[in-house]
Every structure is written in C-alpha cells, then in structure tokens.
Amino acid sequence: MISLNKYNQKRNFNTTAEPESVIKKSITELVFVVQKHAASHLHYDFRMEMDGVLKSWVIPKGPSMNPVDKRLAIMVEDHPYDYKDFEGIIPDGNYGAGTVMIWDNGTYTLADQEGADNVEKKLKSDFEKGHLSFILNGKKLKGEFALVELNTKDENTWLLIKKNDQFACNDDVLQEDKSVISNLTLENLESFENLKN
Ligand code: MN
C-alpha cells in the first residue's frame, strides 16, 4: 500500500517549502535523486522512484564509486515524486531543518530486466526481498549499484554498494560537491537562499 502519511505527519506545509504529497510517476524512464542535506548531521539522501513515490534512504557517508566501500543506508519514509526537484532551505523548527542541495539526479533501470515482462513488478518484488540491483544514469553516479537489506532486528538497515564495471573507481565522487541544478556548493546555496529571504 503506497502512502505518504508518514511524510505528511512530519511536516507542516505552512512553514516549509518542501513539496506536498502527490503520488505521480514518470511518463517514460524511472528517476532517482541524491540530495546533500546539512541537517543536524550532514548526510546524503538517496531516493529512487517506485510506484509513484520516491523510496528513500539516508546515506550518512554518502555514495561511493568504489566497490570496496559498502555504505550504510537507512531506509526512511517515502517521499513524494516532486521531492526530486527540491533544493533550498528547510527553516529552523521544521523536521530536517537545514539546506538541501540536489547533488545528483538522473534515470535508472533494473540491472537485469531480462525475463521481467513487467519491470515495475520485478522492481517491487526485488524491493520486498531486500535486494535491488540497478543501473544509474546520473551526472555523477553511473553504472551498476546494489541496495541490500541487512538481516538485523532493525529492518531499515541496508547497504549501498557499487558493482564492478567500467564506471567503478577509487576517486572520491563526493569531491564533486556542486549542485547539478544550480551549480552552487551547499555553502553557497545557503548564502544565496538567505539573501533572497
Ligand atoms: Mn535528509
């Protein structure tokens, strides 16, 4: 059952510019977004479209292009599709207060679509099984990745892992620290947004 109730409960749309919850889908390709978020702790949010919402994970250390790095990914509440376009400041006093920057975005496909007559059905069943393999076509993140759920008591604990392919490398992709929308760093975005207010 797809629902954005948890997302709504945490937010007051009179005091934050974050998008209100509307369930919608891409017309053609599935989308993903990675937001860099300077909340009480700096982290990255990885979100991928599934069934009209954005499935969301907090990646405390951010994604890596190195297959050796297994990055902790904590699954959080589904976000509305329009959240992929949110860049700006969540004001003090609101849930997740701080600056949000669109660090990367693009489209994705299932890594193994063969034999899947219905890609979305396969996607959902892989998600339920706690093992998703997908190919990102972003500006920074490219190639095959996996999200794997850990068998811990806390059922929200996953790992984000880069698979070995021609895009895998040792370079720290987080050094590319500008927004793919505004071309500003998080710090510059914050200053710029504060000037507008
Ligand atoms: Mn966040």
Can you describe what's shown?
The protein is mainly β and 197 residues long. It has one domain. 14% of the residues lie in helices and 38% in strands. It has an eight-stranded antiparallel β-barrel. Manganese (II) ion is lined by residues 37, 39, 43, 45, 58, 96.
What keywords describe this structure?
14% helix, binds manganese (II) ion, eight-stranded antiparallel β-barrel, 3 helices
Q: Topology of this protein?
A:
Blueprint: H1 5-9, E1 30-38, E2 42-50, E3 53-59, E4 70-80, E5 88-90, E6 98-110, H2 119-129, E7 131-138, E8 142-149, E9 157-162, H3 186-196
Antiparallel strand pairs: 1-2, 1-6, 2-3, 3-4, 4-9, 5-6, 6-7, 7-8, 8-9
Described by strand count, sense and barrel closure, the largest sheet is: 8 strands, antiparallel, barrel
Query: What is the terminal separation in angstroms?
Result: 39 Å
| Bound molecule types | manganese (II) ion
**Main β-sheet, spatial strand arrangement:** 1-2-3-4-9-8-7-6
Shape: globular
Q: What is the N-to-C order of secondary-structure elements (H for helix, E for strand)?
A: HEEEEEEHEEEH
- How many domains is the backbone divided into? 1
Radius of gyration, whole Å: 16 Å
E-strand count: 9
Number of helices: 3
- The share of residues in helices is 10-25%
The percent range for strand residues is: 35-45%
- State the secondary-structure class: mainly beta
On the 0 to 100 scale, the average pLDDT is 92
**Regions with little confidence, pLDDT below 50 for 5+ residues:** none
